[in-house]
Amino acid sequence: MNKKKLFHYSLFFFVIVCAGLFYQNCNAGVNVKNKDVYCVILAGGSGTRLWPLSRASKPKQFLSVGSELTLIEQAVERVSYSVAKENIWIGTTKNHQALVEKYVGEQIGRIIVEPGARNTGPAILLNCFEIYKKNPNAVIVFLPSDPFIPNQDRFITFLDHAIDYTLKNDRISLLGLKPRYPATGYGYIEYDDTQLNVPFGVKNFHEKPVFEIAQKYCEQGNMLWNISMFCAKASVFLEEFKSNAPDIFYAVEQYINGLGSYEDVRSESIDYAVMEKSKKVSVFPVDFEWCDVGNIEIFLSLQKEYGLDYKNVLTVNSNDNLVHVKGKLVALVGVEDLCVVETEDTLLITRRDKAEKVKTIVQKLKRTDLESYL
């Protein structure tokens, strides 16, 4: 081979290698984890509607649902595609700190512990102060720890869009789920559908509706389920708290500076404290698979759908029952539409369509000398 041909071949392979490296870098750029992006997963809920599987000592975010992983492990795994490990934080109460450390302590950067439960408003503000102190340029994603989201890829796509927008704009960006049925268990976000581009401006937040109103919401076309997922710059969160909930802002600030008690902070949700008052809120309509695992019937249905229900059940003239019992044979005769749940110290039997009422058992336990069953 003469020198001219050798040169041409070398140049050709050099171009191919460079093109490959360029392609790899471009694709990798999509997944580059911006050091200014943080995620706080809120894990302070009690999950009373999933009693007796969800208990005060181990609430529902620490249950395995539709997978061998617990809900909180699934939440950390999902966000890890978009956020660096050291920037994934968990917000929880001191009662659940040990469980957080047990299940995800090695997969996250930090745990922020509230001295007591003061609802989502103070919990979010506390994390905003801590992150802003560490990185004034931070963008923070807040996510709940307890929904079940089987399609990670679709969720990540929507989340990355919201993060990218928030990095460039001084807005609070919500993810609002397109309603699939007239749900009465969720709040709704009404957005301005006269706009041409996403995200849309938020017109109103609506409380959990009765069924007839929920039907109208679904027909309206510009209503979304409020699934408590949102992001903004830390500085924007702090400004909006200071403007719209100054008493909470200063009480949490005093607590952080060692000049006040966390018990003196007003208990309030982020929706009431900031979202419903702020003029800087936008929403991204999203349509990934999502389930809030809101009661024992939903939990058992998911376990059955994903092949994690128990097989030691014999039935005679019985249909559509859901059973969660370990180590015992369960025989059902002539019954339909029941949920049967056994733990070491409790037995729950409820109709599937009455599963939402399980939380009243928890309320009754609190008023008796049977609190050990909580």
Keywords:
Spore Coat Polysaccharide Biosynthesis Protein SpsA, Chain A, alpha/beta, single chain, 374 residues, three-stranded mixed beta sheet, 2 domains, globular, five-stranded mixed barrel
Structure description:
The protein has helices spanning 3-31, 71-79, 97-104, 120-134, 152-168, 211-220, 234-244, 246-256, 270-275, 296-305, 358-366; strands at residues 37-42, 88-93, 110-114, 139-144, 172-177, 188-191, 200-206, 223-233, 281-286, 313-316, 322-324, 330-333, 338-342, 347-351. The chain folds into two domains: 31-286, Alpha-Beta Complex (Spore Coat Polysaccharide Biosynthesis Protein SpsA, Chain A), CATH 3.90.550.10; 306-373, no CATH class. The longest helix is centred in the first third of the chain and has 29 residues, at 3-31. The strands form three sheets. It has a five-stranded mixed β-barrel with strand order 5-8-6-7-9. It has a three-stranded mixed β-sheet with strand order 11-13-14, with helices on one face. Strands 10-12 form a two-stranded parallel ribbon. Strand 6 (188-191) and strand 7 (200-206) form a beta hairpin. The model is unreliable at 3-31 (pLDDT under 50). It is of the alpha/beta class.
Q: Can I get a quick summary?
A:
This protein is an alpha/beta fold and 374 residues long. The chain has helices at 3-31, 71-79, 97-104, 120-134, 152-168, 211-220, 234-244, 246-256, 270-275, 296-305, 358-366, and strands spanning 37-42, 88-93, 110-114, 139-144, 172-177, 188-191, 200-206, 223-233, 281-286, 313-316, 322-324, 330-333, 338-342, 347-351. The chain contains 11 helices and 14 strands.
